[in-house]
Amino acid sequence: MSTTPHDERFMAAAIRLSRWHLGHTATNPSVGCLIVRDGVIVGRAVTALSGRPHAETQALAEAGALARGATAYVTLEPCSHHGKTPPCSEALIAYGVARVVISVTDPDPRVSGRGIAMLREAGIEVDAGVLEAEGRHSLAAYLTRQTKNRPYVTLKLAVSADGMIGREGAGQVAITGPLARAQVQALRAETDAILVGIGTAIADDPLLTVRSPGLESQSPIRIVLDPFLALPLTSKLVETAREVPVIVVASEEGSLSQAEGGIPPADATDMDSRRAALEAAGVEVLYCNPYHPEVLLPALATRGISSLLVEGGAKTARLFLEAGLVDRIQLYQAPVVIGERGIESPLDATDIPSGFTHTGTLMFGEDRLDEYERRL
To answer: Is 38 exposed, middle or buried (0-12, 13-18, 19+ CB in 10 A)?
Structure first.
């Protein structure tokens, strides 16, 4: 690798840029691209909202004639196949770029290695693997869907000083303070979908949207594990389903699960009427065993969902943990004491499952966030 002292600096900037549209580029990854000439950035772009146009073509257009002889820094290998748009590798060649620096090679079999080969065959110098660990982290959702056929799953838990995540019969209980809650809003804004169990949906009646000023339009798809379609038509989720998509995952078998329950209907006719009412309100009903995440997650991936945030409740969190299908844990610990009728957290800092690495600690006022990740 013939990298220069400036390569890591420019790639780090491209990776930061790539995060701007996380969760909002449909099935395409959010890629960052910089065009650099004589140490000066002359073009920059991130994959557009909804996934097109790609970062490279936008950055090249901004650079114009200055792209000739320049270096392109791209967080993911440029595509080499004709899809709805021409290959980005062809655009880099056409603009006369002299060198391309790549962070991560694309695992998509239509691209993997082919983009690099196309560039080299055109006489362009290519260096790959610059800040690869950081690049893979920013592309974690895309890489997981490509290699594992499922979304990248983040489990978020807010735990009180006495090890609780809520109080029975109390609805939503504020455990963390406003600074930590704002951080969670930012996490929602860069995630494709957010998931809760029907017990949490009924007890808390949450919106599950992004409420930070300026980010409201970046609310994720909302998913409820709801085997018997018990989600009330008067719930906030149903009432806002035409504004922000809602998917309820219903049981194919109609059998009661041991996870967050729901009340089984008296007969199939009742289920049909519930489904019709929910669909009339704009809710999508997905028939897929809600308590078998190894089946559910691939089904969500086929809908273009690359990242999933699991937020509630305790049984749903335990379901994903026990299935070994959590990729990242965000564990907030607060000084609040819940006391009587507390709902015990399925996890605390002393029993993080094996395979996870502690990647950092942040403080938000009095609240502590510890993050743990599995290796991609």
So the answer is: exposed
Percentages helix, strand, coil for the chain (3-state, rounded to 5) are 30, 25, 45
Task: Give the three-class secondary structure for 307.
Answer: strand
Report how far residue 261's alpha carbon sits from residue 225's, in angstroms, rounded to the nearest whole number: 9
Peptide bond into 129 cis (omega under 30): no
Q: State the greatest distance between any 2 C-alpha atoms of the chain, in Å, as a whole number.
A: 73
Q: Is the peptide bond before 53 cis (omega within 30 degrees of 0)?
A: yes
The pair phi, psi for residue 164, each rounded to 5°, is -115, 155
Residue 44 β-bridge partners: 34
Q: In this structure, are residues 116 and 93 in contact, taking their beta carbons and an 8 Å threshold?
A: no
Q: What is the mean pLDDT of each run of 10 residues along the chain (376 residues)?
A: 82 96 89 96 94 93 97 94 76 96 91 89 96 95 95 97 87 88 94 96 94 89 96 97 97 55 61 94 95 96 95 92 97 93 90 94 97 91
Alpha helices (H) along 19-87: 55-63
Is 90 tagged catalytic? no
Catalytic residue among 8, 56, 168, 284: 56
The SS3 of residue 175 is coil
Residues 6+ apart with CB under 8 A from 246: 221, 222, 223, 224, 237, 238, 240, 282, 283, 284
- Give the span between the Cα atoms of 16 and 140, in whole angstroms: 14
Q: Give the C-alpha separation, 324 to 343, whole Å.
A: 22
Pair 156, 310: CB distance under 8 Å: yes
Strand order in the sheet with 152-159: 284-287, 246-250, 221-225, 193-197, 307-312, 152-159, 328-333, 367-374, 356-364
Rounded-to-integer distance, Cα 270 and Cα 276, Å? 10
Query: In this structure, are residues 26 and 51 in contact, taking their beta carbons and an 8 Å threshold?
Result: yes
Could you give the residue ranges of the DSSP H alpha helices within 139-265? Answer: 140-148, 178-189, 198-204, 236-239
**Which tokens is 207 given?**
């919106």
